Amino acid sequence: MATTANTGPHAGGSTPPKTSTDTRKVAVATLIGTTVEWYDFFIYATAAGLVFSELFFKPAGSEFATLVTFASVGLSFLFRPLGAFLAGHYGDKIGRKAMLVLTLLLMGGATTLIGVLPTHATAGLWAPILLVLLRIIQGISAGGEWGGAVLMSVEHAPRNKRGLFGSFPQLGVPLGMLLASGVTALMTGVISPGDAFLEWGWRVPFLLSIVLIVVGFLVRMSVSESPVFEEIAEKKKQTQMPIVELMKNHWKLVVLAALVFAGNSAAGYMTTGGFILNYSTNPDGPVALDRTDVLLAVSGSAALWFAFTLVSGFMADRIGRKKTYLIGFACLALTVFPLFWLINTGDIWILFLGMALFTVGLGLTYGPQAAWYSEIFPASIRFSGVSVSYALGAIIGGAFAPTIASALVKATGSTTAVSAYLLVMIVLAATATMMLRDRPGIDLSIRNQAEQEVGATIFDKRRGVSTDDAVSASASASAGTRV
């Protein structure tokens, strides 16, 4: 790959923020915003694992109600590509910031409304229908939000610290899960234990979202637009149909990037999708642990997931995105079977140990994603590229992972098949990882579109020429002519 002749921490990148304070402000803003978004998203999965089968899907029967409930968790993933397509299209045309604010309001509004929904006992069939519709809105929002958040963070970052700054929006996922499980544990264990949680306590975490919306909105409105997009707008380089161009010229790259995320997504949604919570607290199941204890264990594992995601940001800048990913997938592969062996002991501390070991691989295969995705897609279609790849990876890996896991346990009577399923997804993702190239430090600006267009996979041997290289070559040729 060609590299620009520029040097310095911001060289070869877009126009840098005015100060390092601006860079940190953007990083913190993306962290807060994604935390709010994922709190909203995980509150649904947490409630689904605990009470939704009883409150909204009970007429389906106890076993089938659980499958339908987890299917409603996964259904939102099918609408993530719609959110990714819409946000990607307008994010590449009118800017990253506008899409971030819009998706935040959309997600928060849907979450708050779930908190006031009538249950099946009072509204009949309308209750699950409205619940699913609001979950679909959450899916559309989640599909559009991630791309804008990571691009704001990475495109503002110094070239030699993209891995670290790109990990900040990624940290919003474990923080959102920590917040969601922590608030729910407070409700089940202190404020509304027992039947009170089923009657009204489950609503409180959803209603709290309105407070988080206000905080997230104010923070996101306070940051400046991505310098890369500002340059695109200034030079009037917006692509008229970014999605069409993406799928026409870079569909293979989209598929590989989606498969990379699918491995992390399938593994992560064992926890974030509510399966482990439901499996370990089911009073008729083989583990039957206290729900508050398990929620606290989930909160603890989320804190460790946060730590390893942050560590992976440093690692990605030191040893590369690709090596960090492969180390992470190796860790996941080594822990998928021990995870459920430890959970099945029925001891809450051993369950926590299993989840803690699992978070090492989860963090290492999530933190570098923002920087790597941003570096493999061209500037003019970057929002569309990262958003669509992420959304498709979420469908392939996480959409119905809890539903598949529940069905496998029901069919086989054990969790061994679940571990085998996860191992297959991890191997598939690791294979896709090896087919992508590491491009740390590549110039992300629209000036370098020619270099960005080629060489992102190991199969593409073409060499792009950056604008700076072309100018240097032209100057040299002119000098030679004069001589």
UniProtKB/TrEMBL annotation:
It is found in: Cell membrane. It holds the Pfam family MFS_1. Residues 1-21 are annotated as: Disordered. Residues 26-441 form the Major facilitator superfamily (MFS) profile domain. Keywords: Cell membrane, Membrane, Transmembrane, Transmembrane helix, Transport. It is a multi-pass membrane protein. Its main location: membrane. It comes from the Bacteria. The chain crosses the membrane at residues 26-52, 64-87, 99-119, 125-151, 171-194, 200-219, 253-276, 296-316, 325-343, 349-367, 388-409, 415-436. This is MHS family MFS transporter.
